[in-house]
Amino acid sequence: MVETVPLPTRPRDQFGSKNARRLRQQGLIPGVIYGHKEEVVAVVMSREDLDRVIRKAAHIVDVEYNGKTEKARVRELQWDHLGKEVLHVDLMRVSKDERIVIGIPVVLRGHAPGTSEGGVLDQPIHVLNVECPVLEIPEFIRVNIDHLGLGQAIHVKELTLPPGVVAKADPDAVVVHVKAHRVVEEAAAPAEGAAEPEVIKKAPKAGEEEE
């Protein structure tokens, strides 16, 4: 079961941008709790408590307010333009019977033999969207590459996922593979007196983006 982190809050009764700035100056972060067709509750929480949630990369929190505790998903964090300070947090109520779609990091383990055969390891999928019970979100998806030879690949349909977790991606999509180096041969030297042709060299590929 996914680890939950306690997040104490108290009701917020003053609103507006000026009040929000004043709260942040006091080490407090405004937020809302919503979902399950219940009332939207405006709250504030300490920056220290919220930082603990962020450091633990907790998807689910035990949010405490008005003398009760509910499980909620950290749905959205609004950051400042520098990406250093949280300005606002949205918390969405969840129940143990819910299933959600969420992106989970893909972590490679082992050494691919194909890289010793002149190949290059390439991982097109770094984060995989899965559907799973909201209280059983995996921390990561581990992929063993000890058997991966030159020209071989591991596809989404070949992943071993925890019970109750279903991949929400093309089953034939490549997660990781070992591809051959592209050898660029030098153009033959031009004959004496002949005009030297323009040689267009293909720029090296940058690292591929996450899906």
Short key terms for the protein model shown above:
4-stranded mixed beta sheet, Ribosomal Protein L25, Chain P, RNA Polymerase Alpha Subunit, Chain A, domain 2, 7-stranded mixed beta sheet, mainly beta, 14 strands, disordered C terminus, 2 helices, 211 residues
- How far the N terminus sits from the C terminus, by CA atoms, comes to 26 Å
Number of helices: 2
Strand count = 14
> Considering DSSP H and I runs of 4 or more, what fraction of the residues is helical?
under 10%
SSE series:
EEHEEHEEEEEEEEEE
Q: What CATH first level of the largest domain would be assigned?
A: Mainly Beta
Low-confidence segments, given as residue ranges, are 183-189, 199-211
- Give the CATH superfamily of the largest domain: Ribosomal Protein L25, Chain P
Q: Which CATH architecture of the largest domain would you pick?
A: Beta Barrel
Overall pLDDT: 85
Domain count: the total is 2
Provide structural commentary.
By secondary structure, this protein is mainly β. It folds into 2 domains: 4-95, Beta Barrel (Ribosomal Protein L25, Chain P), CATH 2.40.240.10; 100-180, RNA Polymerase Alpha Subunit, Chain A, domain 2 (Beta Complex), CATH 2.170.120. 9% of the residues lie in helices and 42% in strands. The chain has 2 helices and 14 strands, in the order ββαββαββββββββββ. A hairpin with a 6-residue loop joins β6 (68-79) and β7. The longest helix has 9 residues, at 17-25. The two termini are 26 Å apart.
List strands and helices in order, with pairings.
Blueprint: E1 4-8, E2 10-11, H1 17-25, E3 28-35, E4 38-46, H2 47-55, E5 60-65, E6 68-79, E7 86-93, E8 99-109, E9 119-122, E10 127-133, E11 141-144, E12 153-155, E13 166-167, E14 174-180
